[in-house]
User: Fold these one by one.
Assistant:
Number 1:
Amino acid sequence: MKKAIYPGTFDPVTYGHLDIIKRAVRLFDHVIVSVAESAAKNPLFTAEERVVMIREVCEIDNVSVDRFKGLLVDYATEQNAVALIRGLRAVSDFEYEFQMALVNRKLSEELSTVFLMPHEQYTHLNSSIVREVASFGGDVSPYVPPQIVQYLKEKFSE
Ligand code: COA
C-alpha cells in the first residue's frame, strides 16, 4: 500500500489543487490531502473550515482529508507515507520547492518528494489571487468549485 501526503495551506482549495490530487491518485494507492495550520500565513479560513471545504469538493476514492501541525516529515512518518506530493506550476516555484524537498529529505531519508505539474490552465493560479478577487466581489468561478465560491461569499460578508 503506497501512501502519499499532499500537504498545503489550501486557503482555499482551487481547481489547480484538485488537478494535482487527481494526478496523484493515479500514482499511489492512497493520497492524504493534509491541511497545514500555516498560522504564519494568517489564513482566511480556519484549518477545520479548510478540511471541510476540501472534503466537500473532493469525493474521490482513495483520497482522504486530514490536518497536521508541526513538522511535515513527522506527520508523514506517523501516516506511513512514502512520498510527499507538491505541485510545480512554473520555474518560479522551483527554488522554494527544491529547498523544501532537500530539507525534508535531510530530516527523513525514507521520504521522497514527488513533483507534479498541474494542467497549464492552472499554472497562473494561487489561493491568494482567489481570495483577493473574491474579496472585491469578482468572479472566481473559473478557479474554484461552486461550493468554494459560496464559502468565499459567506466569509467576505461576515
Ligand atoms: N494550484 C493552485 N495553487 C497552487 C497549486 C496548484 N496546483 N500549488 C500550489 N498552489 C498555491 C497555494 O495555494 C499557495 O497559495 P498562497 O500562498 O497564495 O496561499 C501557494 O501556491 C503555495 O504556497 P506554499 O507556501 O508554497 O505552500 P503551502 O502553503 O500550500 O504549503 C507547507 C506549505 C504547509 C507544505 C509547508 O509550509 C510545510 O511543510 N509546513 C510544515 C512545517 C514543516 O515541516 N516545515 C519544514 C518544511 S521545509
Number 2:
Amino acid sequence: MNPLRVAIVGFGKIARDQHVPAIAAADGVELVAVASRNASLPGVPHAATLDELLRDGPPIDAVALCTPPQVRHAQAAMALAAGKHVMLEKPPGATVAEITPLVTAARAAQRTLFATWHSRFAPAVEPARQLLAGRKVTSVKITWKEDVRVWHPGQVWIFEPGGLGVFDPGINALSILTRILPQPLFVTSADLAFPANRDAPIAATLALSDAQGLNITAEFDFLQTGPQSWDIDLDTDGGPVTLSMGGARLRAGGKQLVDAAEAEYVGLYRRFRELAATGESDVDLAPLQIVADAFLLGRRRTVEPFEEAT
Ligand code: NAP
C-alpha cells in the first residue's frame, strides 16, 4: 500500500510537539507539506494557507488540521471538497452541529473524517476500559488542573469565543471518561468562572450522571501552579481505580497496572491510515456535547481578569 501523504495545517505547538514525530514514527504515513501562515518546517514544502496548498502544493491524500477549533470547520469542508481525508485535532469544532455536514460531505466524497481524541490513545485507557467492564462503578472524580501559562503560552484563541478555555484540556478527561464508561453520560450542573476580560472559562466544576444516577464530579482549573493533575478516580465494587497522568498510568487493587510513556499520536496516525484505506469516518461527539451542555446549563461567575504575564 502506498503511504498516506499528509499535510499538516496550522503549524503550532501540537503540530511540532506531536504530529511531526508521530508521522515520522508511524508506518505508512508521510509528511509531504505544511500549510501555515507564519511557520514552516525546513525541508518540507510550505504554503501559507490550505487554499494555496490545494492549488499549488505537492500531491497530498490527507490533511491534519492542527489549527484552533474556530477555523477548522471551513478548512475541513474545503479539504473534503478537494477529495482529501481529514484528521481533526480535538475538539472537533467550535460548535457541535457544525460537524454533521462534514460527516455528510465525507460520506458523499468517500473520504475519511477522523475526529481525534488523542487522550483515548493514552496507554492506560484501553486497560482501564477492560477492567471497568467487569465492575460496577459507584462514583467518579475528575481532577484536571494545569497552568495555562506553562502549557498554552501565547494561545490567545483559547480564551476567545469557541476556544473552550479550561475545557480545551478538560475535554481530554471527558474523552477518556466517555470511552471507559460505555453508558451515555450527561451534565446535571455546572459552575463556570469567566475572567472579566475573557470570553471562555478559566475554571469549571461539573456534576454529571447517567441513567442509573452515577455520581460524577469534575474539577477543571487553568491556574494550577506546582504539581499538575490529570487524574480520574473511580470507586468501584472491586475497589478504587485511578487513571493518572492523563491516561498514562492505571492503578487498581493496590497495584500499578500500567505506567507507560505517552505514545498517543502514533496510535492516532495508525488509526487514520486504517480509516483512510477504506474511506470510513470515526466521529464521536460525546465529549464536545458534554462541554456544550456545561455552557448551556452552567452558572457563570465573573472572576478577576486574566493576564498571561504575571
Ligand atoms: P497553537 O500553538 O496556537 O497552534 C495553532 C496554529 O494554527 C498557530 O500556530 C497558527 O499558525 C494557526 N492558526 C492560529 N489561528 C489561526 C487562524 N485564525 N486561522 C488559521 N490558522 C490559524 O495551538 P495548539 O496548541 O497547537 O493547538 C491547536 C489544536 O490542537 C487545538 O484544538 C488544541 O486543543 C489541540 N491540541 C493542543 C495540545 C497542546 O498541548 N498544545 C494538545 C493536544 C491537542 P500560523 O499563524 O502559522 O497560521
